[in-house]
Structure formats: structure tokens, C-alpha cells
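Repro case for the chain-ordering regression, as requested:
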Amino acid sequence: GNSVTQMEGPVTLSEEAFLTINCTYTATGYPSLFWYVQYPGEGLQLLLKATKADDKGSNKGFEATYRKETTSFHLEKGSVQVSDSAVYFCALRGNQGGKLIFGQGTELSVKP
Amino acid sequence: DGGITQSPKYLFRKEGQNVTLSCEQNLNHDAMYWYRQDPGQGLRLIYYSQIVNDFQKGDIAEGYSVSREKKESFPLTVTSAQKNPTAFYLCASSMRLGQKNTGELFFGEGSRLTVL
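-- result from build under test --
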């Protein structure tokens, strides 16, 4: 079945550091891929998405590229801020529709 | 503004009591979902509904029940049969599964249930 694997957290960075959160997936066909962010005490918000191979999703300085050859969708940001501290979830939906499958989440903590 | 409203935000319950969590959306979405979130375990799907008067069990439905009498509403009841109900519960909605869309979910702000 479909699955998503994220790097384990917590990830602790200093402000202005470069961020990478790894995400790999297992799925048949061409799923849609998502990154969601959850700020403390809140629900999840969509951060970015990509629906086909080689697409790059971007939002708020974050980027992720849909890599079919490596079945990956790593999240990157060139310079993190304290306000980026949150839990980040990678997710996929199969190309036949179906449920959204989430990774276990990666907690990011950015220190001033 | 369009969105999803969950209530209450915090809820305390004694063991053996049922409790119902409310979820209302005004996004005109056909599909609605309930997830449970525990520390370090990500999100687990409890129930989902693709259309009014129909719903399906997710991965951890035991001890929970739902109804979908209106398109806008998808309440979740946590019954006394749920062995470990203390958790953060998230409701979400989307366009109907299988429609030509990217499948984005829109989430409420969550309800934190604590069993005393």
C-alpha cells in the first residue's frame, strides 16, 4: 500500500540556517504530494503541493520538488526564522483518489 | 470567511462517559474526515465521509462513532469503549475523493480531549 516516511525529529536549527526535511514515499503510479505545517496548538495548514513529476511546490520561502526517480519530496528553506518553528507533515494521495496518507511529522525548532 | 470550526477546543471527561466533538464547515465540501493525533505518531484516520448519509471507517474506528446528516456537519462521538481517548482530534474537509482535484485537505483548529 501507499506510505510516507519522514526524517525523525526534533530538528533544531539556528535562525538563518538552511533547512532540509527529508520525505520519501511508496506508491503506485503518480500520486499527488503535499507538505502541511502545524503551529503549536493549531490544526494543519497546507504549505505546498505538487501533482506531477518534476513539479516544484513553493510557498513562504519553502520549496519541494517531486522526484519520481528517487520517490522523494524533500522540504527545503534557505534561511529559517524563529516563526518557522512547527511540526511539518509530508503526505500523499494516490492517483486513483483515496485517502490522504501522512508521514509521522517532523518537529522543527528554530533558535534565535 | 470560509473554513472549518471545531468545538469545544478543550474538553475534559470522566471515564465511562461519552463525549461528542462538533465539526462544521462552510466550504461546500462533500468529503469530511476525523483524525486523531498523539505525540510522535502523526495523524491517524478515524472515520471519513464522502457524501451525506454515508461514512466509512478509517484505520482506528473502534470506540468512535459518527453521523453525517447534513453536508456541513460531521460530529464525532468518543464512546466509553475507546480505551485511550485522551488525544488531540482534528476534523478536515475536501472536495469529494475521486473528483478531478489535487485532494487538498482543509483542517479545523482541533479539539483536545482529556479523560480524567
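Ordering looks correct now. The two ends of chain A are 41 Å apart (CA to CA).
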